Amino acid sequence: MPSRLAHTLFDPDSTPVPAVARQIDFVDYAAEVPVHTHRKGQLIIALYGAVICRAENDIWIVPPDCAMWIPGGIPHSAKATWNAHLNYLFIEPGAAALPEKCCTLAISPLIKELVERLTDEDVDYAAESHVGRLTRVTLDELVTMPQQKLSLPVSTHPKIRAMADALVSQPEDRSTFKVWAKRLAISERSLARLMLRETGLTFGRWRQQLHLIIALRELASGVSVQNVAANLGYESVNAFITMFRKTMGSTPAQYFAVQRAANA
């Protein structure tokens, strides 16, 4: 297995230019990127496969045709699927009017192509050079991209964090809310209030969002719909597809067909 860590490939803070792009193929790097931080903000674009990031007490999924934005100075870690092929765009603070909080963005084919083009360029370019102008266009386009709801709030509260860690590692666990309250030594009413206060979601909605994030990661790495449904503890494939369609607006097959068409 590759032992090189992706975040050691390049120091984005070594150059003061507005933005610099780099490409990572996780066939060549370890799948897990430990917690780290840098001055520049980071845009993570998934070309193939998917990556899950942890930042600001949230878990974020970056499926194909989407990107995660991490503002500068925020500690973050990541875990990529075996086939993940990513483009990074590191952006100097103040170079673009991007969100001050982490978020997932829909990415247009134009931005994907521009960032891909910039991965071939040197890091020290003049502002008025051709690369400088391409960078400016890229950043201007990027700020118009809509946000996607592909995050899972986790919280630092010990009881919520314990439950989250357990369900992330064993997503097939279909224990009821009553069972979880007993495990955490807290009343159902108190746990319900705690969930809403710490995550903004009910337990059912929170677990559904977790399943969606894991499903997107697994489907992007080539796991079949049948196996994903089974791994998440669904009684039938149809029940899983119904959940996916309600949250994403399409079935898994339709969703990834659109992604493949966009990449063609």
UniProtKB/TrEMBL annotation:
Keywords from the named record: Activator, DNA-binding, Repressor, Transcription, Transcription regulation
Lineage: superkingdom: Bacteria
Plastid is among the record's keywords: no
Keyword Methyltransferase: no
Ranges of residues in domain HTH araC/xylS-type: 158-258
One Pfam short name: HTH_18
Gene Ontology MF terms in the entry: DNA-binding transcription factor activity; sequence-specific DNA binding
InterPro entries: AraC-bd, Homeodomain-like_sf, HTH_AraC, RmlC-like_jellyroll, RmlC_Cupin_sf, Tscrpt_reg_AraC-type_HTH
Alphabetized PANTHER family for the sequence: HTH-TYPE TRANSCRIPTIONAL REGULATOR NIMR (PTHR11019)
Name under which the protein is recorded: Arabinose operon regulatory protein
Organism: Pantoea coffeiphila
Biological classification of the source: Bacteria, Pseudomonadati, Pseudomonadota, Gammaproteobacteria, Enterobacterales
